[in-house]
Design goal:
CATH topology of the largest domain: ABC transporter transmembrane region fold
Distance between the termini: 82 Å
Number of helices: 22
CATH architecture of the largest domain: Up-down Bundle
Strand content: 5-15%
CATH class of the largest domain: Mainly Alpha
Helix content: 55-70%
């Protein structure tokens, strides 16, 4: 019992939340059991009266009582299930929301350590097992205990001797339940782990279906899935065999009990110690206890499955985010709801004014990296970086692959956690900002573009709840996407498919740029955001972005010199350190990596034209 109570501990807040309804449900359950137990007593008195020559009127009275008892039983059974099973659905709703909310708070490294398919399995299959524990598990547990205790009292009043024989095998029943319960729990845990592996395999294969087909690996993937599926089925069959032995074991014990009671009870009737009505009632109570005894086995299964799944869910719920606000900075729920609504980019006229003729003024933020060193997965990625980006200016970062460019910009919205005292915004340590406040200031276009399986409109307006169609269209125009959208039959209502599969790489990047622009951010970060577009389209987008970048602090990462040459400051990162800095013209004159990159790209352009 102590072990079960400990395993159920994560559910205590949810049980406490619905304590009043559980009490009402328990009261209804008592009424249900009372009407159920009244039926054998009515039959007892009816049979005894018939033996003594009862009249037809009295027989009709007993029939009426039986009908009333049956109707009362049906009424309270209905409300018992509505209340107690209903609570499990609402508790599942709360638990699912809490799980999803917590998953959104966890740091990026957690999702790098855990597969999406595994997390999805826990949020679906394990959640269902916990719901069954909260609903039928609790309901049938209470029903079994109450029925058993009440029936035991009545049976003792009829015949203590028969009651003794009836419950003689009870210790054996308890031993069987404990024995099978432990093994069911162990096997169900392994089955859920295999199901998570199976779900992860399917998710990865479907997400990477284009790669699978490109390498003609369909049969190989099917074979790997079949192997995992066979192991899952084998483990389930082991559980089914165990479960198949459980019920027959209980049935045998109950059958032996019936044999003993029939033999001893028959002798008691013959000897005149109890009446035939009492013996019939006693057997009726034994019959009523048959389902609770069998239900006990089912409840054990529900509890073992539920606690196994609850443990897997609790592993997520107890995981602390590596990056979080300090306790003194955390927002109240009402403040949080307000903070999540960004002010979208106003629609500007050709003169650079919004619809009311007022000039849009956006002040950027000073960004400063002070002697920043950062390690990732035990490897130092950045080494003693000192860099200042004045408010409203544009910084460009170039460098070879793996030099730490993306890592550096990921430290600004705290997607990775920089060491204390190494990153400042407007002279204030970045840890002194609330995460919601910090990230609301930033429009981020990441190197790997991710689009949701929604419409283009919803993807562009992601994170901006009050964006109008005009503002979305204006953002799409700045991102160089508007002409493409106008060619789609459904325009902005076009569904992009999972991860934007129906769009080209360039279209996905331009959608992401429009999404970042619409947020009207103080800081705009473009991490190689134009790599999938041609140089002509790139030039158009940069020209349109020029008005948006004015007044905002902008950080550009690119391998193209054409993208970064207009920046106020350019830095070259190599092996995590800044090896060059200056303007485009200044860097061309020092015979360094930047100049080599520029000459190489000029040569590539010449070869393309040739």
């Amino acid at each position: 019992m102590i072990s079960i109570a400990k395993r159920l501990q994560p559910l205590y807040p949810y049980l406490w939340r619905y304590r009043r309804r559980y009490l009402i449900g328990f009261g209804v359950l008592l009424c249900d059991v009372a009407f159920w137990l009244a039926i054998p007593m009515i039959i007892k008195y009816a049979i005894d009266d018939l033996q003594q020559g009862a009249t037809a009127d009295k027989l009709v009275l007993y029939i009426r009582w039986l009908v009333v008892a049956a109707l009362g039983k049906a009424f309270f059974l209905f409300w018992k299930r509505i209340i107690l099973i209903g609570i499990s659905r609402e508790a599942e709703y709360d638990l699912r929301n809490d799980l999803y909310r917590h998953l959104n708070r966890l740091s990026l490294t957690y999702f790098q350590r855990n597969r999406t398919g595994d997390l999805m399995s826990r949020a679906t299959n394990d959640m269902n097992a916990v719901r069954m524990l909260l609903g039928p598990g609790i309901m049938y547990s209470l029903n079994t205990v109450v029925t058993l205790l009440a029936a035991l009292g009545i049976m003792l009043s009829i015949s203590p001797k028969l009651t003794f024989y009836c419950f003689l095998l009870m210790p054996v029943v308890v031993g069987v339940v404990v024995f099978f319960g432990r093994r069911i729990h162990e096997r169900f845990e392994s089955i859920q782990a295999l199901l998570s592996t199976l779900s992860a395999k399917v998710q990865e294969s479907l997400a990477g279906i284009r790669v699978v087909r490109a390498y003609a690996q369909e049969e190989a993937e099917i074979a790997r899935f079949q192997e995992a599926n066979e192991e899952y089925v084998a483990q389930n069959m082991r559980l089914v065999r165990l479960w198949g032995m459980f019920y027959p074991s209980l049935e045998v014990l109950l059958g032996l009990t019936y044999v003993m009671v029939l033999w001893m009870g028959g002798r008691e009737v013959v000897n005149g110690n109890i009446t035939i009505g009492s013996f019939v009632a006693f057997n009726a109570y034994m019959g009523q206890l048959t389902w609770p005894m069998i239900a006990m086995g089912w409840v054990v299964n529900l509890f073992q499955r539920g606690t196994a799944s609850l443990g897997r869910l609790n592993q997520i719920l107890t995981e602390e985010p590596e990056i979080a606000d300090r306790p003194d900075l955390r927002l109240a729920p009402s403040e949080l709801a307000v903070s999540q609504t960004a002010e979208p980019l106003p629609v500007r006229s050709a003169t650079g004014s919004d619809g009311d003729g007022k000039r849009e003024e956006v002040r950027g933020v000073d960004i400063e990296f002070r002697n920043l060193s950062f390690s990732y997965n035990g490897r130092q990625v950045l080494h003693q970086v000192d860099l200042t980006i004045p408010a409203g200016s544009t910084l460009a970062i170039v460098g070879p692959t793996g030099s730490g460019k993306s890592t550096l910009v990921h430290l600004i919205p705290r997607l990775y956690e920089a060491p204390p005292g190494s990153v400042y915004l407007d002279g204030k340590d970045i840890r002194d900002y609330r995460l919601e406040e910090l990230r609301r200031m930033i429009g981020f276009v990441q190197q790997e573009t991710f689009l949701f399986s929604e419409t283009i409109r919803e993807n562009i307006a992601f994170g901006v709840n009050n964006a109008t169609d005009g503002q979305i269209q204006h953002a799409a125009e700045i991102g160089g996407l508007l002409s493409d959208v106008e060619d789609f039959p459904m325009k902005f209502g076009t569904i992009v498919g999972e991860r934007g599969i129906t769009l080209s790489g360039g279209q996905k990047q331009r959608t992401a740029i429009a999404r970042a622009v619409l947020r009207n951010p103080k800081i705009l970060v473009l991490d190689d955001a134009l790599s999938s577009v041609d140089t002509y389209t790139e030039e158009i987008i940069l020209n349109r972005l020029a008005s948006v970048m004015r007044g905002r602090t902008t950080v550009l990462i690119s391998h193209r010199i054409s993208t970064v040459r207009g920046a106020d400051q350019i830095v070259v990162l190599r092996e995590g350190s800044i090896v060059e800095r200056g303007t485009h013209q200044e860097l061309l004159g020092n015979g360094s990596y930047y100049q080599e990159l520029y000459q190489r790209q000029l040569l590539e352009e010449e070869l393309e034209r040739a």
